[in-house]
Design a protein that fits this description.
Elements (H helix, E strand, L loop, with lengths): L23 H20 L3 E2 L5 E3 H4 L15 E3 L5 E4 L4 H10 L8 E10 L11 E10 L5 H16 L7 E7 H10 L8 H11 L2 H13 L2 E3 L5 E3 L5 H11 L12 H13 L1 H19 L7 E3 L13 E12 L5 E12 L5 H4 L5 E7 H10 L12 E3 L6 H16 L4 E3 L7 H11 L3 E4 L2 H6 L1 E6 H10 L3 H6 L4 E5 L3 H19 L1
Parallel strand pairs: 1-5, 7-10, 14-15, 14-16
Antiparallel strand pairs: 2-4, 3-4, 5-6, 6-13, 7-11, 8-9, 11-12, 12-13, 16-17, 17-18
Helix pairs in contact: 1-4, 4-10, 5-10, 6-7, 9-10
Keywords: Aminoacyl-tRNA synthetase, ATP-binding, Cytoplasm, Ligase, Nucleotide-binding, Protein biosynthesis
GO molecular function: ATP binding; histidine-tRNA ligase activity
GO biological process, one term: histidyl-tRNA aminoacylation
């Protein structure tokens, strides 16, 4: 066989690793969820803004932890003018660029929200994707922690608007100044100790997973897990380990005025060794006072000095939305669902472009993760989309097709989801099979005889399917509700509405 006779190589359809195709149900669930989130943000006086998927690489900064990945965890390419551009890895860095570039036109404080995809050049794994959606809200230009307190309250309101009840979530709040102060107090201040500081923060972040003793091992010599794998520790001495744990080990927050002498002494010991920690605790006290005055008790917003947050650009209060109910993981174990979003104050991010301080705070919701949580709770997809009414095609001439198209448009104008059959109309059985597989609630049929009389047949496909499973003889058929009716063309819309309403009532009773 010569080259000309060779068959062309068939292209292989392959989904890139770490990416997913989204189904109609998932898209609708996300739309339902984001509409509720948007309503809360708007209620708080926030306005939408949109930034592009690409930014110049230097504008994004180097804040991702995956430094061993190509481009340090981001996807990058070189433009035709040899400038490097990267897909955004979050929605915060692009906002900082947007604010700096439009600073003279923007009204401060600038209160904005946006939803969109972000991209991480990370190793994919179960539930870990390279493209995912975030929904953020930020306030730029507000230096006081009342802006941080409001973010926490808005996050709590958002979760409740989505149907997550009190007791099933908590917003945990800390301050990076407290953590920075702890590190400074044990001699880990300065640029040359940045690596050690990061390892201490990573160890603290494992408190929920490994417990206090596990964190002590990570802060000291290291920890061996159940499989025998060893994680090297930070190498702190016993005194400094206990000093760190005295601050971050989980314990109930006690408001100013209610602290015991021992608690005051412990706080004084830390704040005497670090001004940063003193400032951090003062800000946490202010946040607690603000949210409590607004009616948000510790079962909803809780001060928790173990909250770290991973990104390095946080400079003050940090907060995390955690779901407290149990789910079964891929190993079949019962685990707490955990974090679905968080954020904090990032006063240095806009300032990188400005040469002057620009305070900012905000939070981000992980849309896919939160959607998984809502599905677990049965809070999504309850308002199921009704499949379209199908207008079948009996004759393919221009006049007949025009009539079918007109019927379809009349249904649509009345707010009814409808479609005219687009396949091979000559095999009518295929049309009803299509309607069945699609889950269409109603089929409209008009052949030559019906057209001559000015009528249409309306087939209730849901009732028809039920009857076909129940009817055993002709007497049962006559007693049952008729699944197909003939009505005047002028009554088409009214009759379809009536049938759809009856089906909705049946679903309601069944549910």
């Amino acid at each position: 066989m010569n080259d000309k006779q060779k068959k062309p190589q068939k292209l292989k359809a392959r989904l890139p690793r770490g990416f997913v195709d989204r189904s109609a149900n998932d898209i609708r669930a996300v739309n339902e969820m984001t509409a509720k989130i948007r309503e809360v943000y708007e209620h708080y006086g926030f306005d939408p803004v949109e930034t592009p998927l690409f930014e110049y690489t230097d504008a994004l900064g180097k804040f991702l932890p995956d430094a061993d990945r190509p481009n340090e965890g981001v996807f990058s390419l070189q433009d035709d003018d040899e400038q490097w551009m990267s897909l955004r890895y979050d929605l915060t860095a692009p906002l900082a660029r947007h604010v700096a570039e439009n600073f003279n036109e923007i009204q401060l404080p600038y209160r904005t929200y946006r939803a969109g995809y972000v991209f991480r050049n990370e190793k994919p794994g179960p539930g870990r994707f390279r493209q995912f959606m975030q929904f953020d809200a930020d306030t730029v230009g507000a230096p006081g922690v009342q802006a941080d307190a409001e973010m926490c309250m808005m996050m709590a309101d958002t979760l409740e608007a989505l149907g997550i009840k009190r007791g099933d979530y908590v917003i945990r709040v800390n301050n990076r100044k407290v953590l920075d102060g702890v590190l400074e107090a044990i001699g880990l201040g300065g640029d040359d100790k940045a690596g050690q500081r990061l390892n201490v923060l990573r160890a603290i972040d494992k408190l929920d997973k490994f417990g206090p003793e596990g964190v002590r091992l990570l802060l000291g010599p290291g920890r061996k897990d159940d499989s025998g794998d060893f994680t090297k520790g930070v190498g702190l001495d016993a005194t400094n380990i206990e000093f760190v744990m005295s601050v971050v080990e989980k314990q109930p927050y006690v408001a100013v005025g209610n602290r015991s002498a021992e608690q005051v002494a412990k706080l004084n010991e830390l704040t005497e060794r670090s001004f940063s920690a003193k400032e951090g605790f003062s800000e946490l006290d202010m946040i607690h006072g603000l949210v409590t005055a607004a009616g948000y008790q510790s079962d909803r917003i809780k001060i928790d000095p173990s909250v770290v947050r991973g990104l390095e650009y946080y400079t003050g209060p940090v907060y995390e939305a955690e779901l407290l109910f149990d789910v079964t993981n891929e190993k079949g174990e019962k685990v707490v669902f955990g974090s679905v979003g968080g954020g904090g104050r990032y006063d240095g991010l806009v300032s990188r472009f400005m040469g002057q301080p620009v305070p900012a705070t905000g939070f981000s919701i992980g849309v896919s993760r939160l959607m998984t949580a809502l599905k677990n709770l049965g809070k999504l997809g309850q308002a199921d989309t009704i499949e379209p009414v199908l207008v079948t095609v009996m004759d393919g001439d221009v006049v007949s097709m025009g009539r079918y198209q007109r019927m379809t448009q009349e249904l649509r104008k009345a707010g009814i989801r409808a479609e005219m059959y687009q396949g091979n109309w000559k095999k009518f059985g295929n049309q009803l099979k299509y309607a069945d597989r699609r889950g269409c609630p109603v089929a409209i049929i008009q052949g030559g005889d019906e057209r001559a009389e000015g009528v249409v047949q309306i087939k209730d496909l849901i009732e028809g399917k039920r009857l076909s499973g129940e009817i055993e003889d002709n007497a049962s058929w006559r007693e049952a509700r008729v699944a197909q009716e003939t009505v005047a063309e002028s009554d088409l819309v009214a009759k379809v509405k009536e049938i759809l309403a009856a089906q909705a009532e049946d679903r309601k009773r069944a549910g």
